[in-house]
Every structure is written in structure tokens, then in C-alpha cells.
Design a protein that fits this description.
The chain is an alpha/beta fold. The chain contains 8 helices and 12 strands. The protein folds into 2 domains: about 180 residues, Rossmann fold, CATH 3.40.50.11310; about 50 residues.
Length: about 300
């Protein structure tokens, strides 16, 4: 299922681009997007507006990320697309095929081989390098939209760096639940200045954003906003002195590779409700299984099975 890299997605660049401009978008649109990306990189965490275009996919299915990728991809890039860590979900497969047909670039399922990684809801487990770009699909880039729905007011709060509303929201979590209950799209402060939404990634991935050597680009097509986190930029998850930020932890290991350090998905394996936990990142799990086979006697059983 998680096969090796596709050496070349299409026979030739000319065949891939027949009837379409390279990467689908016209060159003027790409220049507009690149200008917006440069502004976003220059001011980390700041939301830059851009003129979002109609794409072959509907809004909400990654149109912002697709437009960002289309603006930066080149003929010698290698593209990887994941959806919640997997290379084989419908969204990831469709986007990968879209760029294969319109660019002819090489595609891969291996994180270490990719120069551009487009992702929805996850950051790869493998450490990224300064030669890679991580493109996020973002449904809602404004972290304050549930607390302050008025756009003009939320912009004023960003200008003044007045983020007390978010601190109150996290405090209310502590009052009601005893801890900060937010488990995904956990708010962060970028470069000691702007409050930003990291997209709906689990808060397990938040520490990976801090001082990451890869360039991180966030595209929201429906909301027409772009923001960015340049390489080696400090990113701090909001917390309190007496309630420090913590990531999720599991009392299980991956049933396939035995990992205890990756983000795990819970799966129901039969009608009786037996469960197993597996790595969300399919490439990471595949690489671990390829490097060292897990001893079957030490492999965790599905919850509910007799040991």
C-alpha cells in the first residue's frame, strides 16, 4: 500500500501540461501568490489576503494549499501529499494526481525524498530539513473567529496584540474540565508577536513547528488568506504557568511498528468493538517496519483480545 516513490508521475512535462498551463494556474496568478507569500514570510504569522481562484476541487478540500503549491512548485521538485498523515486517502490521492497531470513532477510517498509536502491536519513524524517546504491546507486561518466574529475587530486585536480573549477561552477550559481541553488547532504565538492558527493539526504536532528548519506555508482558499512561518522561527503554544502546554499521550504502542513516540489513530477492527492503535503517519510506520521487523510476541494486541 505504501509503495516506494513514483519515479516520474507522467511520461514527460509536455504531455502533462497539454492543454493546461504548468501547475494549472496562469503565470500572473502565480506571481500574485508569490508576492503574498513573500509578505507572509517577511511578517511571520501575519495573515496576508490574496485573490483566491476557482480550482477543480471545491472550497474546503484544500484549494488554498493547492494554490500555494502551484505557485512554488518547479519542474525539478518532488511532491508528497498527505491527508491526516496518510498518502492513500481520497483527498491526498486526488491532489497528487492533479499535480502529476498538470506538472509532470516526480511524486513520492517518502518524507525524506520530498522537496514540497502538502498536508492536511498533520505534520510528518520524520524531521524536516531546510531543503523542504511544508504547505498546509487551512480551512480557517483566523484563530479568533469563534471569539470575535467581526473581521474589523479581530484585525484590530491583532494590530494591538490583544489576545486576552484567547487566554480567557483556555482558562474556561480549565474551569470546566480541569485542564486545557483543546486537542487540535491549538493557538500559537509566532515569533513572539502574532497569534496564529496552526490549522486543525493535533496539538501533538505543535512542538514540531518551533524552530523547524523547513519553510511552513499556510493557504486558506475559501477565506482568501495566507500566512507563513519561516525556517527557525520560534513558535509558542499558549498556556499558563500552572497549566503548562502538554501533548497527548497514549498507553499503547503502534500495533504495526511498535512505535511509542508517534501520533496514534484508534481503529475499530471488528463488530465486537475490538480496537487497535496504529501510526497516523503511514510513511513513518512503513519506514519503521522496513528498518526492523517487530517481534510478534512483543507486538501489542488489540484492546479486548486475550493476551
Amino acid at each position: 500500500m505504501n509503495a516506494a516513490a513514483t519515479p516520474l508521475a507522467t511520461p514527460s512535462y509536455d504531455a502533462a501540461a497539454d492543454g493546461y498551463n504548468f501547475a494549472y494556474l496562469d503565470e500572473q496568478t502565480k506571481r500574485m501568490l508569490r508576492r503574498a507569500l513573500l509578505k507572509a514570510v517577511a511578517v511571520p504569522g501575519y495573515q496576508v489576503p490574496f485573490a483566491s481562484r476557482e480550482m477543480p476541487l471545491p472550497f474546503g478540500w484544500g484549494t488554498g494549499g493547492i494554490q500555494v503549491t502551484a505557485a512554488i512548485i518547479g519542474r525539478h521538485d518532488t511532491l508528497k501529499v498527505i491527508d491526516q498523515g496518510s498518502d492513500e486517502t481520497t483527498n491526498a490521492v486526488n491532489i497528487r494526481r492533479f499535480f502529476a497531470r498538470t506538472t509532470g513532477v516526480a511524486t513520492t510517498r517518502r518524507t525524506v525524498e520530498a522537496t514540497i509536502i502538502q498536508t492536511r491536519h498533520r505534520i510528518p513524524e520524520a524531521p524536516l530539513t531546510d531543503r523542504q517546504i511544508l504547505v498546509y491546507q487551512v480551512p480557517m486561518p483566523e484563530p479568533l473567529f469563534r471569539l470575535e466574529p467581526r473581521v474589523a475587530e479581530s484585525r484590530k486585536l491583532h494590530a494591538l496584540a490583544d489576545y486576552g480573549l484567547m487566554s480567557v477561552k483556555l482558562y474556561e477550559d480549565i474551569v470546566h474540565h480541569g485542564n486545557i481541553a483543546t486537542t487540535y488547532d491549538y493557538p500559537v504565538i509566532v515569533n513572539h508577536r502574532y497569534l496564529a492558527s496552526p490549522s486543525p493539526i493535533p496539538k501533538f504536532d505543535n512542538p514540531k513547528m518551533h524552530m523547524n528548519p523547513a519553510l511552513q506555508l499556510f493557504g486558506a482558499g475559501r477565506e482568501r488568506r495566507i500566512h507563513a512561518i519561516p525556517p527557525y522561527t520560534p513558535v509558542r503554544s499558549l498556556d499558563f504557568d500552572d497549566h503548562p502546554f502538554e501533548v497527548q499521550k497514549w498507553q499503547h504502542a503502534c500495533a504495526l511498528c511498535g512505535s511509542t513516540e508517534s501520533f496514534l489513530d484508534e481503529m475499530i477492527v471488528d463488530d465486537a468493538g475490538k480496537r487497535m492503535f496504529v501510526c497516523s503517519d503511514s510513511d513513518y510506520c512503513h519506514e519503521r517496519r522496513g528498518d526492523a521487523e517487530v517481534d510478534p510476541s512483543s507486538r501489542p494486541t488489540a484492546q479486548g483480545e486475550a493476551a
